[in-house]
Design a protein that fits this description.
It is globular and about 45 Å long. The protein is built from 3 helices and 6 strands; from the N terminus they run H-H-E-E-H-E-E-E-E. Helices cover 18% and strands 38% of the residues. The C terminus is likely disordered. Strand 5 and strand 6 form a beta hairpin. By secondary structure, the protein is an alpha+beta fold. The protein has a 6-stranded mixed beta sheet.
């Protein structure tokens, strides 16, 4: 049986939604020397130790996570997943909001359990920010100086 990419993402979201940082850590090969996560929001390349500490924040999270798998390319031992990560936030004052994040994950699938060895996360621009030029997110400022 092949790698179940959507199942992998659903289990990870379940660990987040269960506020289980230790469970979330099991999805990442934090000890692999190649491990790295790049988040556009911070502009930092994050190693395994720092990312492990960041996962602890899930304990205090208030949102609900889910994933929409866009594509999975399985190269026999490594799978590259492209997905939209959604986090729905509910606030008594501000109501309901949703963060949409592009996620690209390199998952080692040649061993059990499959684990992420590298990832890239970036915000999906809102429709208001998009200029209509192929969804580039430039907010209509293409070519502006």
């Amino acid at each position: 049986m092949g790698f179940d990419a959507q199942g992998f993402l659903d289990r990870y979201a379940g660990a987040y939604n269960g506020r289980d940082p230790e469970g979330m850590r099991t999805f990442f090969d934090l000890s692999d020397e190649r491990f790295a996560v790049f988040e556009d929001f911070t502009g930092d390349l994050i190693d395994g130790g720092a990312y492990s500490a960041m996962l602890e924040a899930a304990f205090d999270a208030t949102g609900r996570m889910s994933f929409e798998l866009l594509r999975c390319d399985d190269f026999g031992g490594i799978a590259v997943l492209h997905a939209i990560q959604k986090i729905v936030l509910e606030d008594e004052v501000e109501g309901i909001g949703e963060a949409r994040i592009r996620a690209t994950l390199w998952v080692k699938t040649g061993e059990e359990p499959p684990r992420v060895v590298s990832a890239h996360f970036s915000a999906v621009p809102s429709a208001v920010e998009e200029c209509g030029m192929g969804g580039c997110g430039c907010a209509g400022h293409a070519g502006d100086d």
